[in-house]
Amino acid sequence: MEARENLLVVDRLKTQFFTYGGVVEALDEVSFEIEKGEIFGLVGESGCGKSVTATSILGLVAKPGRVISGRILLDGENLLEKNDHEMNDVRGSRIAMIFQDPTSSLNPLFRIGRQVAEPYVYHQHRPKRQALKDATEILTKTGFPDADEKARNYPHELSGGLRQRAMIAMSLTCEPELLIADEPTTNLDVTIGRQILDLVKDLQREFGASVLWITHDMAVVAQMCDHVGVMYAGSIVEKTDVRTLFRNAKHPYTERLLRAIPSAVKSTDKLEEIPGSVPRLINPPTGCRFHPRCDYVMAVCSSVKPAEQEIEPGHWVACHRFAGEGEAT
User: What architecture is the 6-94+176-328 domain classified under in CATH?
Assistant: First the structure.
């Protein structure tokens, strides 16, 4: 197996929220790597910690939350050691994000062209007139019809699909090394969503960026991603390349997830729901957080957190069923 050249390394990341009701253990030693030029999928049910992972990488965890421990290495630099001013230089230039809802991310008071031009002005210090011209060019590249005219529009004057294209254009202005896409097609209809997926993949190849693709849809993972990490209740329970995951999923949660999502099974198969519900992270289950819903639960599962095991080259699983197989971390 060829050695991976990683752009991003997330190492044992712990993020918690300190609320009046208790400590929310949002991320519990999350670890994964994203290779240069690849699309890495982070998949799981709502509330499992996918978006918190993104905001932790960007240094945007909202109070009363904070990163407790771990490392986030971007091309070898630990982002957790940077101050706010240094992270402002990273965000938008080296790391950019496409948010789920462009309506809440775009400023309703400013024209689209001005908003797309802003990273050029802030990060690259281009004159405003040149930045607006360059903004029109990147809007054209992201599929805006009549970009010169549409750049003068306000967000509410555009369709949902065009607003999302504007967000993609804004994220690519400074040609970031890492693009984080947080379920950017969730609020779009199927046809427009498919167009956005194809657009991001084409632009990712053109710009050579790495992508962290956050989703709950296994069909999107199959279409978009090279490698994938499966999240459950703040932990990554399985990670491998996409083909291996769909062919040979090992973690009980991944198995259930594949059987429970219509887009990931044949039309003749019977869909199965995952029994129980995602636990509250103020007082999560001890040991393996999935054990109350697991078909293969053993006595050890309720008391000991399973270590990640590399059960075959590049295929990691955190489950006591595979204890002693391969290398543990």
Answer: 3-Layer(aba) Sandwich (3.40)
